[in-house]
Amino acid sequence: MFTAQDPDAALMLRVKQGDRDAFEELVEKYKQPVINLVYRTLPDAAEAEDLAQHVFLQVFKSAHRYEVSAKFSTWLFTIARNLCLNEIRRRSRHPASSLDETAPDNDDHPLRQVEDTRNFSPPDLLLRGELEEKIDAALAELPENQRTAILMCRGEEHSYEEIAEVLGCSVSATKSLIHRGRETLKLKLKPYLRSGVWKEK
How many domains are contained in the chain? Predict the structure, then answer.
């Protein structure tokens, strides 16, 4: 059974049955990877934290419809990517509005309970050195599909098949996206790496 291969899917099935401890366990495990992905798409630490909370709120709201058809992380990152794209579109229509306007204010909500007992701040998102700033800037200039593919490939040990499912394209297209994105990053970062001004930690 797929849940035997993916314990996170088993946890999500428990969430589907109303198990809030299982939900908290998933949030604790995936909150930072989700924040990292969101932050690289929308490079604002506060907004990344807000949108990540919306991702987990959507997970909770969708629990009753959850079916084990892929790895839990694939399903989760698909939700995260879709919400990022929605936020980008929303900003283009309403540039002055904020996610805070639609944030839940019910203190009894399970996500609120998780926020109260777990530190949701992204300390490793705060500026980490000049080279990483240049990497962030170079990533931000990539097309969205290339950026997402590279982040999932390098950050969370996702297979090409899983990344393809999140992006909604073929495995060969995913490999091509990653290759093109990496080549573009190499070209953009080569002057800084060659100069020796920015050194990797």
Answer: 2
Residue 138, domain extent: 127-201
Give the predicted TM-score (pTM) of the model: 0.62
- CA dist., res. 111 & res. 130, Å (int): 35
Residues 12, 109 within the same domain = yes
Residues 176 and 134 in one domain: yes
Q: Are residues 133 and 116 in the same domain?
A: no
- pLDDT for res 112: 44
Q: What is the DSSP string of the chain?
A: -HHHH-HHHHHHHHHHTT-HHHHHHHHHHHHHHHHHHHHHHS--HHHHHHHHHHHHHHHHHTGGG---SS-HHHHHHHHHHHHHHHHHHHHHH-TT--GGGG----TTSHHHHHHHHS----GGGS---HHHHHHHHHHHTS-HHHHHHHHHHHHS---HHHHHHHHTS-HHHHHHHHHHHHHHHHHHHHHHHHHTSS---
Q: What is the pLDDT of residues 125-171, one digit of tens each?
A: 443 456 667 777 788 788 888 888 888 877 556 788 888 888 888 88
* pLDDT tier, 115 (very low <50, low <70, confident <90, very high otherwise): very low
What sign results for the dihedral spanned by CA atoms 109, 79, 32, 102?
negative
